[in-house]
Design a protein that fits this description.
36% helix; eight-stranded antiparallel sheet; globular; five-stranded antiparallel sheet; 549 residues; Vanillyl-alcohol Oxidase, Chain A, domain 3; binds flavin-adenine dinucleotide; alpha+beta; single chain
């Protein structure tokens, strides 16, 4: 069930924009001090919440669903599962892209759907997709709405098809094949809890885990924090069922085949443009957290840490699961905001040459069978020593894991302080990684009062991802244009220096303009041909998605 459902007594824009349902986080005093210092701000700048979005939602665009169409949808899924009021249409009109949050704070909902429909079964999805295809009504499949790429907007109206209300159960845990078959609208925590009860884990833990779904993970081609060990979500999919305007596609759970293409892969990364995924079979893994080994290392420079990481992953002695490097900027922020800066231990590190402004943290876990976890961690420690890294215990990794999900709540209070804060990410080969890292920092340094942290968090034999988090004061009165210009310049910089458009957030409407230039015309034509076959009337998530029609 969508987490905002049931909380609608507060029908404000803020209710929609804020992350999660638990609490409103506050920026702690270390962070506030840092922001003041970096951006030359004072307490007076924070005297009241900036663009708080506390007004009640009111839409300018009326629902264009015809009464007969609404009646049909109600006859399929029940009146209570078809919503056309302003608040719900606004709630389902977006994800958590910074530009969307800004719109909400400015009391704008540019692309609302005409209705929100929550089908109760796969069969109802089949009926709805067939009807919408005949009536040329757009469908936007909706999971946890944690998209950060503008993938849920409805520029052509239509219906937001919410999978989370009812299509959200485990259908089968198969201990012989070691798989789980799960409905697409199931949220991460419910899936993981049930798997743990049976001695398994799903292995996929994005930072948005609390509020994202299996269908969304696959559709956006996501990666969890331990993807270096468990794989990206597309590595875990064994089979799926999708309802397209051209009919139902159901792939089978063979381990591997040579029967032409693996068609389930078409839907990994399709972002709802080909059809609605209703069910998925995933690999699962043994759940044995007691075996997990953890280690943090510190290096004197990013270059040294990256080179050591590359050697570790290419050594073939086994794979870590969580595998991260924070660059000097991110490391310094971590030290400052945790209160470590200036302590006795900090002074010792500095004396040993691990200096502020160049030192970097590396975090590693190895999970799985006890001997394996011990063996691989032993090798990792040896490699870290060879790379001139110093082991600093397991504590920093434990601390990081403990705040992993809660740090996602910080963006809202930062925006309340008038601070623009967004993230981008890319995949890059080892030979280009430092080039992209340097170019991105140089780009951000050109903006007065801007600050960026970068980390590596998903690691492969031939390269890794880079993850960028930038902070800068909003340009008041020109917030949206300023953000879009700055953001698009950063994407250009990443792509020009050898990075991909995305490694795991997906493309959506935000990155769609880069697709053709990046993939090439023929590749785009091929993708469009697949779309035309499965969705000849272009009803599935239309309007610029993935650079398609
Ligand atoms: C704070 C925060 C942290 C994040 N951290 C990570 C991270 O660590 N790793 C990561 O990979 N991503 C991360 N993301 C991005 C986002 O959480 C992922 O893209 C996630 O996989 C989206 O899942 P969802 O269920 O929320 O999908 P939604 O946001 O609802 O939808 C995403 C896309 O998938 C389509 N879709 C959803 N369900 C279906 C379905 N059943 N059938 C067909 N299409 C469907 C939608 O139409 C849309 O195009 C983060 C986002 C936030 C806000």
């Amino acid at each position: 069930m969508n987490y905002i459902r049931g909380m609608e007594r507060d029908k404000s824009y803020r209710q929609i924009l804020k992350w999660g349902d638990k609490r409103e986080a506050e920026v702690d005093h270390h962070m506030v001090a840092l922001i003041k210092e970096k951006f030359g701000l004072t307490d007076a700048d924070f005297s009241e919440k900036y663009l708080p979005g506390t007004e009640e939602v009111k839409l300018e665009k009326p629902s264009l669903l015809k009464p007969a169409q609404a009646e049909f949808l109600k006859s399929v899924s029940g009146g209570e599962n078809v919503l056309t009021d302003d608040f719900h249409r606004a709630q389902y009109s977006c994800g958590k892209f910074y530009g969307e949050l800004l719109d909400l704070r400015l009391n704008q909902v540019p692309d609302p759907p005409d209705a929100v429909v929550s089908p109760r079964s796969h069969d109802e999805v089949v009926k709805i997709v067939g009807f919408c295809n005949d009536e040329r009504i757009a469908i936007i499949p909706v999971g946890g709405q944690s998209s950060v790429t503008g993938a849920l907007r409805a520029p052509h109206g239509g219906i937001a098809l919410d999978l989370t209300e009812h299509i959200n159960r485990i259908l089968k845990i198969n201990s012989v094949n070691k798989t789980v078959t799960v409905q697409a609208g199931m949220y991460g925590p419910a899936l993981e809890e049930e798997l743990n009860r049976h001695g398994y884990t799903c292995g996929h833990f994005p930072q948005s885990f609390e509020y994202s779904t299996v269908g969304g993970w696959i559709s956006a081609r996501g990666a969890g924090q331990a993807s270096t060990g468990y794989g990206k979500i597309e590595d875990m999919v064994v089979a799926l069922t999708a309802v397209t305007p051209a009919g139902v596609i159901e792939t089978r759970d063979f381990p591997r085949t040579a029967q032409g293409w693996d068609l389930f892969r078409l839907f990994a990364g399709a972002e709802g443009t080909l059809g609605v995924i209703t069910g998925v079979t995933l690999h699962i893994f043994n759940h044995a957290p007691q075996n997990t080994t953890l280690a943090a290392f510190i290096f004197r420079s990013f270059e040294q840490a990256v080179e050591t990481m590359r050697r570790m992953i290419q050594s073939e002695y086994g794979r870590p699961h969580l595998f991260r490097i924070s660059d000097p900027e991110e490391t310094d922020i971590a030290f400052r905001t945790s209160g470590f800066d200036g302590t006795f231990a900090d002074r010792v590190l500095k004396r040993l040459g691990f200096k502020t402004g160049s030192r970097c943290l590396m975090f590693v876990t190895v999970e799985g069978e006890k001997d394996y976890a011990g063996f691989v961690m032993g090798k990792i420690k040896k490699s870290a020593r060879a790379g001139k890294g110093m082991y600093i215990g397991a504590g920093p990794v434990r601390k990081w894991l403990a705040q992993r999900y809660s740090s996602a709540y910080l963006r809202d209070p930062l925006m309340d302080l008038g601070i623009m804060s967004d993230t981008l990410e890319t995949a890059v080969t080892w030979e280009n990684l430092l080039k992209v890292w340097r170019a991105a920092h140089e780009y951000v340094r050109r903006r007065p009062k801007a600050f960026m942290m970068i980390h590596i968090s998903h690691v492969y034999e031939n390269g890794a991802n880079l993850y960028f988090t930038f902070l800068t004061p909003m340009e008041k009165g020109n917030e949206r244009k300023d953000f879009l210009q700055f953001h698009s310049g950063l994407v250009d910089t990443i792509v020009e220096h050898g990075g991909s458009i995305s490694h795991h957030h997906g493309v959506g409407r935000v990155l769609a303009p880069w697709m053709e230039g990046h993939l090439g015309r023929n590749s785009m034509e091929l993708m469009k041909a697949v779309k035309r076959h499965l969705d000849p009337n272009n009803i599935m998530n239309p309007g610029g998605m993935l650079g398609l029609l």
